[in-house]
Amino acid sequence: MISDAILFGMLIGKVRNTVSSLYRFDSFRNRKKEKARLIKQGNILLKHEAQLMQDMGMFDKFAHAEQIIDIGCGFGQFAIWLSKKFPSVSRVIGVDPSEFMIQQSEAKDSPKVTMVCSDGLKFLESLPSGKTDIVCLRFVINHIPSRLWNRWLIAVKRCLKPGGIIYLTLADANYYKTSPELPLMDIMFEHKKLLREKNGGIWNTPSVIGRHLNIAGYNHLVQQSVCLTTEDMGMHNYAVSIGDQFIWGIEDSWKKTGELTKRLLLDASKDANFWGQVKIGIHVGEKS
Ligand SMILES: C[S@@+](CC[C@H](N)C(=O)[O-])C[C@H]1O[C@@H](n2cnc3c(N)ncnc32)[C@H](O)[C@@H]1O
To answer: By alpha-carbon position, which residue is closest to atom 16 of ligand 1?
Structure first.
């Protein structure tokens, strides 16, 4: 016989074990660690992203913007960077549903940056139409269930000025490869893929985002990506950044496997011959 208390415990446990593809910062067990990972990864990526932006001729578009909105801005790293890089921009609004991230952001020292704690879609749908030049979504839409994508993309389009752009940064999930090959890492990514798809997400967002932008009515779609290697990122940085992905977003029953994979990756990265790659890309669409 199972007592009511045990049954209740099992139900609570089941709820806790349910893994969503959505990224909820406030549910991290170690928020300090995740903050450090995001900031460090952000600093590495931003350098390469800036080069991509320049190669794509995007600097001019940003420099002439009046209002830029960064949805899912996290700690506001990109919003702060934008306000410094393009001093002619009047206002950068960072939006994130995580209270912790908004409170811990360093945007207080950036007079042109305003941080708002809100769900991105709700925020976009409450904005006046046609008043924003650029809406950025960096590593965000990949965490949103795909059934909502069209609503998100339409909500962005509505608040853009004619000629305004949506700017997305995304990582290509198929490019996490190392030498020597680490089969457990492939298995973990396969597990993450299944979980994300089970929760209504899309695994390899970059390969399908263009089609969704087109359906939502964006024009002049452009995308460009860069493959970063351990030579660009540093071997330890690479291993920590990729390895940490295995200890979150994975269901509890796989936690130990995730920790083991991270350890194997860290160990492998100590070998002078270790090599690994990631690929990030920028996707831009314009409102006519
Ligand atoms: C992987 S992080 C990326 C953070 C930041 N854009 C960056 O590039 O470092 C994903 C971000 O999306 C935010 N997010 C998740 N669901 C969201 C939603 N419904 N609306 C707005 N932001 C959301 C999270 O709180 C988190 O800050």
So the answer is: 23
